[in-house]
Amino acid sequence: MTATQLPLTAVTTTPPERRRARTRRSLLLDVAEHSTAIALGVIILAPIVLITLTAFMSSGQTLTSNLWPQSWHLSNFHEVFVKAPFLTWLKNSVMYSVLSTVFMLVSSFPAAYALSRLQWRGRNFVLLAVITMMMLPPQVTVVPIYRMWAALNLTGTLWPLILPNLLGDAFSVFLLRQFLLTIPQEYSDAARVDGASELQIMWRVIIPLAKPAIAATSIFMFFFTWNDYFGPLLYTSDQSQNWTVAVGLASFRSLHHVQWNLVMAATVLVMLPVIVLFFFAQKAFVQGVTLTGVKG
Amino acid sequence: MRDQRFLFRALTSATVLALALVGCGSGSDNGSKAAPKASKPTGSITFWHFFTDREEKAIQAVVTDFETANPGVKVTVKGGQDDEKMRQAIAAGKGPDVGLSYSTDIVGNFCSTGAWQDLEPLIKRDKVAMDSLLPIVRSYTEYNGKRCSMPMLADTYGLYYNKKMLAAAGYTSPPKTLSEFDAMVVKLTKKNKDGSINVAGFVPMLDFYENSAAHLAPSWNATWLTKDGKSNIGSDPAWKAMLEWQKSLADKIGAKELQKFNAKKGEEFSADNAFQKQKVAMMVDGEYRIAFIKDQAPGVDFGTAPFPVPDDQASRYGAGYVTGNIMGISKGSKNPEAAWALIKYLTVNNDAIIKLANGIKNVPTTHAALASPKLEVDANFKTFIDIFQNPGSQTSPSTGNGAVYQNQFGDFVDKWQRGQVTNLDAGLKTLDDQINKALALGQAP
Amino acid sequence: MTLTLTSPPVAAPLRKRRRRQHGTVLLLMGPWILGFLIFFAYPLVATVWYSFTRFDLLSPPSFVGLRNYRYFLFEDPNSWKSLRNTLWFVIFMMPARLISALLIGQLLVKIRRGGSIYRTIFFLPSLAPPVAATIAFAFLFNPGTGAVNALLGRFGIDGPLWLSDPAYAKPVLLALGVWGMGDVMVIFLAALLDVPNDQYEAAGLDGANAVQQFRYITLPNLSPVLLFTAITGVIQTLQYFTQAAVASSLAAGVATTGGGSASSLGYPDGATLTYPLWLYQMGFKNFYLGYACAMGVILLVISLVFTIFLLRRSAAFLGPDAAR
């Protein structure tokens, strides 16, 4: 995982009351601001609406510049699965995302714990190393890593992308550490006085408190892997049965000689899970934010 | 400052470990020098090819025949693969036992790097009669005297024209010279009220479907490489002539409108192909288009002909671009015996070749199959058989780094079409230099 | 978000537990240390070594000295072009994303009612998988059938070829980047809401107008976040690959059958050939892996400059115990 994902800390924080504004604001300003926001909203939503409409069109209509479907073809979504092994690609994407997320948590949480809640020599050096790894463009080291996986006979599969998460993911370590720092030391101290070992403290005290952080980090990982294109392209391009939806979608038009309506139906299908996940996960963001307050 | 010392130690140990890892893990063999004794092929093999959809089914049918003829051999077929994927997979040790490629220009790379095994020992062992193959086919399947591939059918490129549109414009036969051709193109082009192109007589853009520089080159007798394998593009005046013709024709129709038309075209192998939608009157394509039209647009009344030649080279009319599908055995194949059996079946078994040729409308590569009455040849397909056997027909040569020189030429052509090359001579000379340097980069020190 | 490298001080009586902690730390950090060695330290060293070799994955690397670097600097027709393209995105797209995110964040702070709905809408595009979003844009900007030119046509404007025109291809990708600025916006929004209200009130009493308030209160308060976002943005943009790859191959739409076609990556006229794209093409399509490593080393140097800058800035946040 790279530095591309940044915490969405304030997605749902409520703005503090602004008494100052309330009294002095003119109605005119209010209207101006809302119309700007609505106009922007329309522009921003337009692409999503337009591709969704296209997904329902007949193939003939996509060659015209008509924006509204003349007839609604729900069957396009079914056709996507017939034309290409989309179901297999979906399964692969789910496997890549779920396993990566689980592996990342198992390895990164302990590291983040050690980096935030324990005092030891070299800690700051390790932290700098974490940040440097997080910032390293994946293309820099891609050749030796590819060769390594080729020697292990694992290219052509998604394992070269999943397995490294067992050995810690720099961005997740960093993010979890930032969250964990904000949990007051008193919780740990109290448990220590009771004679708990560090591992017991981590397991019984800190993990329950860090649930929102774990949720947020998992979501970032899930999003990153679901959206990843470079990794699956590099490792699985010659094995279409191991493609993820991102790779499959990118080559859908040229490889399966399909029209835009089916491409758009597939595009909608790939976008849908992340959008659904986002609406379900909003609460995790809220809790993560209120508990940790990692912001400016 | 213990931190620093720890850092130093960690970095040193990491470096030592890394150097150790770098050092090992090499060592390779370049295939067997002497072939093992012939044995009955058994076991399972993987076979990758690039065909999709209808063509994929035709290939599968012949592979099934092979399995019936060789009980005990199981072939796992995977379609839709391209050369780069195959090359990457072979390098990673995950290549298929048998690979099929559509471009002869990779032979050099696959042979010289050992990605495909040397077939000579197997050919000698089984006494395969190589003279049953056409000479041009024999030449493009080897590199520097090393044979690592066998030909499985060939593709030949020529001119497709829409008979109805030509008749409506008052033409009864396809053009033979470029001046005839240019005049026809202008007359056949129909524009909309806003100036945009409704029907193009011909789209001279060199990225329009199969209308590439390589496919047109034989009509000008343009050569890619010198005898010692260096770029010849800047020295051979034919290239300049071809590019200047291309530009003048584009200007006659309207270059900007053509670019727009090109950007709007339907996907090449879908039913929306512009020729099949009768949006272009003439285009360059391979013989396989006959089968696509029959399948996707049976209503289009079309004819085929060799691509016209420059007026001063009228005697060369009839030549065209030839390329073949080629097959080879990957380095590291676990079952070379069965792999070789499949290759032999698909490349020198005349019954299989004819069935395949009829199935996907490709040109067969053996003398016997070409002459066979079982080969279904109609007037349109005959054009391509003739081009294939024309002595002036050419293929794009193979280099140690595969088709990289063609990509570089493609980049140059892209610039040229956009009017960004002001001095064509100097531009082509620079291109020569770039191609030679890229070739040098791929050479062993 | 800022880099907070401080950690709470440890109470004195607990110090003796430290010795026992060493084992625990090793246990907790073990996997990460392995990961550091296998996926960071070793590949980094190996990349530098390969960059001095000719390497095609099939035969062992052979030493060629500085040949790859010489080719990059003086001979490769695309190396500088790809670097220029990537810098174009760093100079134009990255700031455009930040500025639009800041302005929209500012607008959202001002809006009281319905703010959360707008926030969700503005954030939504950043969730769209890059491949999907790029395909959507390539479709909408399709010169023939796309909605954008259809709309322009209604106003009598003859729209350009967008992704098929070297002059417009990058700007379309910039628009795509700005469309997905929601992730940055959310970070700015959090920071904007943290600006103490009394500062605005005091400024308001002094008669400062909105622009002055933004200049003298908002910006200074936001500068740490802005800096962090800018630097991570630069490093993120240096890796710009997916959108350029998908957009160029869709715009090119060239057949794969038969040789002689321009390679689709970077189409048109190399306008979208970014540095990572060229590295990928040279390494994994042309199999000049030694050369790809040389390009990797150069990319490493460039990104290290920014990383070190970030780390130095973060030193300011280091707490007292960081000196240990």
Radius of gyration of chain A: 23 Å
Instruction: List the uncertain runs of chain C.
Output: 1-8, 254-262, 316-324
Give the ordered list of helices and strands of chain A: HHHHHHHHHHHHHH
What is the ordering of alpha helices and beta strands of chain C? HEEHHHHHHHHHHHH
Helix content range of the residues of chain C, please? 55-70%
Task: Look at the structure and name the CATH superfamily of chain C.
Answer: MetI-like
Give the CA-based shape of chain A: globular
The proportion of residues forming helix of chain A, as a percent range, comes to 55-70%
User: What's the CATH topology name of chain C?
Assistant: MetI-like fold
Query: Which CATH class of chain C applies here?
Result: Mainly Alpha
Count of alpha and pi helical runs of chain C:
13
* Total domain units of chain C: 1
The largest sheet of chain A is: none
The appropriate CATH architecture of the largest domain in chain A is Orthogonal Bundle
**Oligomeric state as shown:** heterotrimer
Largest sheet of chain C: 2 strands, antiparallel
Q: Name the CATH architecture of chain C.
A: Orthogonal Bundle
The mean pLDDT of chain A is 84
Structural class based on helices, strands and sheet pairing of chain A: mainly alpha
CATH first level of the largest domain in chain A: Mainly Alpha
Can you lay out the helices and strands and say which pair or pack?
The complex is a heterotrimer of chains A (296), B (445) and C (324).
Chain A: H1 19-24, H2 27-55, H3 75-83, H4 86-117, H5 123-135, H6 142-151, H7 159-162, H8 170-180, H9 185-193, H10 198-209, H11 211-227, H12 230-236, H13 245-256, H14 260-292
Chain B: H1 2-23, E1 43-48, H2 53-69, E2 73-78, H3 83-91, E3 98-101, H4 107-113, H5 120-126, H6 135-140, E4 142-143, E5 146-147, E6 150-162, H7 163-168, H8 178-188, E7 190-191, E8 197-199, H9 213-220, H10 237-253, H11 255-264, E9 282-286, H12 289-296, E10 302-305, E11 322-329, H13 336-348, H14 350-360, H15 367-371, H16 379-389, H17 404-417, H18 424-442
Helix pairs in contact in B: 2-14, 17-18
Chain C: H1 17-50, E1 53-54, E2 62-63, H2 67-75, H3 79-110, H4 115-123, H5 130-140, H6 147-154, H7 166-179, H8 182-194, H9 197-205, H10 210-238, H11 242-252, H12 275-285, H13 289-315
Antiparallel strand pairs in C: 1-2
In short:
The complex is a heterotrimer of chains A (296), B (445) and C (324). With 296 residues, chain A is mostly helical.
